Amino acid sequence: MTARKSSGTAKSVAKTGQGGELHQSASAPESRLTTNHGVPVSDNQNSLKAGRRGPTLLEDFVLREKIQHFDHERIPERIVHARGSAAHGFFELTDTLAEFSRARILTEVGVKTEVFTRFSTVAGGAGSVDTPRDVRGFAVKFYTREGNWDLVGNNIPVFFIQDAIKFPDLIHAVKMEADRGYPQAASAHDTFWDFIGLMPEATHMIMWAMSDRGIPRSLRMIEGFGVNTFRLLNDKDEPTFVKFHWRPKLGTQSTCWDEAVKIAGADPDYHRRDLHEAIAAGDFPEWEFGVQLISQDEADALPFDILDATKLIPEEMVPIRIIGRMVLNRNPDNFFAETEQAAFLPTNMPPGIDVSEDPLLQGRLFSYQDTQLSRLGTVNFHQIPINRAKGCPFQNLQRDGQMQTQVFAGRANYEPNSLAEAGEVGGPREDPAGGFRSVALPMQETKVRLRADSFADHFSQARLFYRSQTAIEQAHLASAIVFELSKVTLEHVRDRVLANLGNVDADLAQRVADGLNVALPKPSTPAVKPRDMEVSQALRIVGKYPETLVGRAVGILVSDGADGVLVDAVRAAVEAEGAVVKIVAPKIGGVTLKNGKRLKADGQLAGTPSVIFDAVALVLSKDGCTSLLTEGAAIDFARDAFGHLKAIGFSAEAKPLLDKAGVEPDAGIVELDKDADTFIAVARTRQWDRERKVRMLA
Ligand code: HDE
């Protein structure tokens, strides 16, 4: 091996480990590799050794600095919501709430405010998959002109528990079991259901989490909710209760459970990739922003307590007023610096928005600031670019601390001070008129550690949710609970859950018991007898799905000799609908079409199963089809598309593959024609009617 010296002139020669040479122009200061302290590095390939084959020297600060930085590259992941994906964008107000709030973000119509939005799963670690059955976090940081507003919500409008003091128990129960370290990112295990069975207040949230909302199709297709009740305060400091809502323009859409499980293997980053690719392609996801506004009198008249986070306010009782929109239009430049270091705090609120006494929210007001201290390691985490208030200046007299990046001038780091009188910098002062004020509430209660009686009804809204679902969704929900409880090994745990379900709905409890093939225990004794509420159509997904291909993906499986005219027809029709086309071929090099032209593949069949598409087309030649009859991945491609209720378009030559895969004819299985119209018509929705033919549901 020859070792050469760098020339030190305009052209330097860096040595590779193999003795090869990398020539690079390293003289220009702006392109020069340096240490963290700015010392130019001459050789980034070899450590400094005592002789050609000798030990490495401690004096090699270039090596030590590089390795040491690497050793410390990871920070603790979030204790919950560790797995997340985020994007930049803007919020635009379309309707003013000036009557209710003095916050400029809610009153200045037409103003665009920068946002950074992070979506997450809750239970899994940072490296876990995107499609477990789980709640999704929906956290928005608005960089408003009056400081950051963080609306840290979920895709489900209620929560498992009523009081923050139970949060560590809930999370311990759902995360990997303490002794064995599994399961990762899954609620289907003993400790979670043990906790749930013992906490009837969780039942309403369980209905939501076990519904199809727990397995979203895309982060672009989830709703968002502030969950807790907040307050708005107007110019006169008059309060109004508020619930916040995000509604995806693409509609709320889900996967099938079997599909979600298979996606986890096919593409663990399915949601992250989908969000990134959509934004990169200019297909910007968008949400409407809405509020439910409730006066104190209206709140008092409701049959539940709006301070109880296990309750929602049905839209039929208090309509959602749409007041704005959010568009996500820019991917982060750096995952760690932005997505990982983003710190969301429910305490970040501009003047005119305030908290309520919801005991869950009250605990959150402490937790988020606190957790950032161990996660980001310093009280100065607000200075990290992604967390910095950028809609306005921020200034105060807080000083020093680890990773302080600001250089403060002057002597005044206390207040009051009179240094300005001597011509020195006096520093910022409080603003009684424009500053943040809390709602003025009379407080004369006895100090107690108890739960309000108004929180005691744990089943009425769980019942409302179940009864408001379509038959399809009820079957999915029951099947999801059967699946989860089938992974529970402790019989008494299953029985307790079943006993609670009896208070939700007798039919649901029986279906789950039948699905498990166990006897249904008597319903548990509820603290308050559940009441029937008016069914709420708004709680459904099925039927509210927009029948469209917009924002979705269609896979075309091709073989050598396939009819290019059909491929082009499908592609044109799908793209005209606003969906993305991916060509799947047996080999990544693509295929040669009937007309002799080459067609490139976007994915190799074995690594690109149909689960990642919303509809598929099979354009095969006769020989191509014959050769795929012995290829499991091809058979699965068709079988899974069928089983996941997707539309399948096919060229006549592809029929033997469909037959081999057990695909039975129905309205969603169509032979492709020259304009692909029939295929597009059925591809706009799942084939729900097929479901009972392909799956035993509870
Ligand atoms: Fe959180 N939650 N949470 N949570 N939460 C965190 O803060 C906590 C709750 C939510 O993308 C943590 O920065 C307590 C409800 C989201 O960075 C932590 C309680 C809702 C995110 C924390 C709750 C949420 C978090 C962990 C019960 C829906 C991810 C890392 C009192 C409204 C934000 C962090 C992101 C993250 C505490 C309940 C949403 C530990 C104590 C209810 C979307 O502070």
Automatic annotation (TrEMBL):
Top-level class of the enzyme under EC nomenclature: oxidoreductase
Gene3D superfamilies from the UniProt entry: 1.20.1370.20, 3.40.50.880, Catalase core domain (2.40.180.10)
Active site (UniProt): 81, 154
Domain of life from the UniProt record: Bacteria
Reactions accelerated catalytically: 2 H2O2 = O2 + 2 H2O
Keyword annotations from UniProtKB, A to Z: Heme, Hydrogen peroxide, Iron, Metal-binding, Oxidoreductase, Peroxidase
EC number: 1.11.1.6
GO molecular function annotations of the record: catalase activity; heme binding; metal ion binding
Domain Catalase core: 34-423
Region (Disordered): 1-52
UniProt name for this protein: Catalase
SMART domains: Catalase
